[in-house]
Amino acid sequence: SINGKAVGDSWKTIVVVSNPNKTSKKVTLPATGNWNVTVQGSTAGTKTLTTLRNTKSVTVAGNSTMVYTSKQKVTISLPKLHSAFTLMSLDFTRVDESADATFQKV
């Protein structure tokens, strides 16, 4: 997860889940709450694609990445790493909040 609040982002908490497995996997989010999905399947951007309400866990399709955002600051405690997932550390600046993109599988 990424602490958006620390860099003044309107998204206080950003969770990136990458599932390199062929099958779907259930993932526990850092807190129960409302999570906006901004990356799903071949669609990615800064606009909310859907909102998951009162949600603590999600199922991520195989060979895909999902991004969940929350306007609430969530205290993150690092769980024991599971070998089926990829741990990523990201440093980024969101330059244009209105920029959206659609990606196609090649």
Q: Can you offer a commentary on this structure?
A:
The chain is mainly β and 106 residues long. 0% of the residues lie in helices and 46% in strands. It has no helices and seven strands. Strands 1, 2, 3, 4, 5, 6 and 7 form a seven-stranded antiparallel beta sheet that branches. The chain is globular. The termini are far apart. The model is unreliable at 86-106 (pLDDT under 50).
The assigned structural class equals: mainly beta
Largest sheet: 7 strands, antiparallel
Order of helices and strands: EEEEEEE
The radius of gyration over CA amounts to 13 Å
Shape: globular
| Low-confidence regions | 86-106
* Fraction of helical residues: under 10%
Tally of DSSP helical segments: 0
Write the layout of secondary structure elements.
Layout lengths: L1 E2 L9 E7 L5 E16 L2 E3 L4 E11 L3 E7 L29 E3 L4
Antiparallel strand pairs: 1-2, 2-6, 3-4, 3-5, 3-6, 4-7
